[in-house]
Amino acid sequence: MFKLIIFDLDGTLAESKQPMSGDIATLLAKLLNVTKVAIASGGALPQFIKQVVGGLPRHSHLENLYLLPTSGAALYEFIGDDWNKVYEERLTEKEAKMIESTMLEVAKESGAVDFSEPSWGERVEYRGGEITFSALGQKAPIAEKKSWDLDHSKRRILQEKIAARLPEFSVRIGGSTSIDVSKKGIDKAYGVHKLCERLGIKESQALYIGDELEKYGNDEVIYKIDVATCAVESPSDTARAIKSLLSKY
Q1: What is the DSSP letter of 217?
Q2: pLDDT mean across residues, the chain
Q3: Which of 20, 137, 188, 213 is disulfide-compatible with 219, CB 3.0–4.6 A?
């Protein structure tokens, strides 16, 4: 039995930027009764509260839940009645402005993004420990997001060209339309490693569940550390994985 279960968020526990289903929320609460659970994703803390925490049943064991927003650049734990920051590898405003201008320049020059079309919300978001470029905008419909880059080719072009201009930062594929930039070496693997250290458990005693563990997927970095992995394709697939885990506790 694993001492820690880590989940990706979008595409794994819920659809992009949508709340978890009631079924997933109930299963996650049951998992919190028997082991420690973490969520690692590119969103900022408010997005985690909206998508995950707000949907959990009352009296869920939040003391067993750990949040790793901005792809592991920050860690929060629940103490008393509030979420407390353990650490945050925050980018400066100067760094953020430089990263934003570079992202937009590359996106325009590469041709990967059609700027003649209006975006759904802002394309660039500063999340403290991370800057995220969303090709279609932060509020793009799920169907549009899913169909924009099915083979990862557009995001790979953006990631490679942005990384070439920002060698002092970590540049990686984020969600289905996004690129994330953080301090060098700061990613989901870093966050999970830091959490295991804090909990005093070996990485091999943790399991990571995500929908993009394949090459170029936003969960691929997890292979840098010694956690077990479980690939899923959708929240319904994740529900089946949680049920299987619960049967073993």
Answers
A1: S
A2: 95
A3: 213
